Amino acid sequence: MKIRKQTYSLDQYLKLMKAETIRGDQECQRLSGQWNPNMVNELIATVLTDNYIPPIILGEETVNGITRQWIIDGLQRSSSLSLFRYGNTKITKNLDEYMVSYQRKILDGNGNPKRDEQGEIIWETVEYDIRNKTYEQLPEELKDRFNGYQLETAIHQDCDMSEISKLVRKYNNHVGMNQAQKAFTYVDSFAQEIREITGNRFFLDVYTCSRNDRKNGTLERVVGDMVLLCNYPDQYKKDTKLGFKWLNENGTITDFNSLNDLLTRLTASVGTTKEIRALFNSKHAHIFVAVFKAFVESGMEDAEFRKFLEWFISGGNEIEIDGKVWDMLGIDRSTRDANTVRGKINHLVALMEQYFKEIKKK
Predict the structure, then answer these.
(1) Quick one: what percent of the chain has pLDDT higher than 90?
(2) What is the DSSP code string of 325-357?
(3) Closest CA to 224 of 271, 273, 279, 186
(4) Which of 56, 73, 70 is nearest to 22 (CA)?
(5) How far apart are CA 352 and CA 306, in angstroms?
């Protein structure tokens, strides 16, 4: 694979990102926003002091004569610098070396540069505190330094999307990419569909999302688990990577479209009470969605599922099925254990059948 090196001014590189000539949304790439403020501070300070930043790795794809470049390694650096330049991001006060030196012209009372006896402009060295500053608050000299910073790139040429996904996995084979994010690179055939499903209203109105679920790969993992449990329950794996690899080779677009429709129906039927939302978390959301799939296939009205969940919350979870209540299931195993997950689905389906056939009738 041919690799060429190219150096951009930072201003040119960020404009190419803004114009989407350089793309930061490759389907298998983890989302931006992974860095904490201290990491962003150090990056911006590195640029403003003209120190070294490792090259950004790009993958170049040409489709129907149109060439695009995708960020393979360096998305967090790229997005952080873009937000500082265009998004009004502020350097916080937590910075060890916050005084930046630069040279500026000494001006007279009319705003014109002072000159010495030989007619040369007189310069002075200034120390500037960059804490709590946005790009627009920087002096012009530091803006020029930021924009003119020389950013190196290494560009993998003549790639297709599958090769780019492999490169994302290769370059992120370190502690920076967690297990769920790395596993996501194995489902490149449906990565776009999975990301679209994470935008379903279900993940805003029903799913109980932690602060980091949306950026650490948890939502993508949950969607993959839902597809498997709704369509191929025997292929569900504790190891997310194995499940994603199987889906990549055997799944269909219909599997993902039907899940998206199912989540829309579920969102419309269950409401958004605090108690119901508590059921749909990263530990159990895929399980309850699979149960809703079984409920739909039974021919019941969607609104009845909410009544079942309310009954389950108010005491149905204490009814025994095969000698066990809900809280006893998988108590001594990982919550992602395949037998535990399928056992919980079977338990809920049995409870649901008992509720509609016996309890609700009474």
Answers:
(1) 68
(2) -GGGTTTTS-TT-HHHHHHHHHHHHHHHHHIII
(3) 186
(4) 70
(5) 11
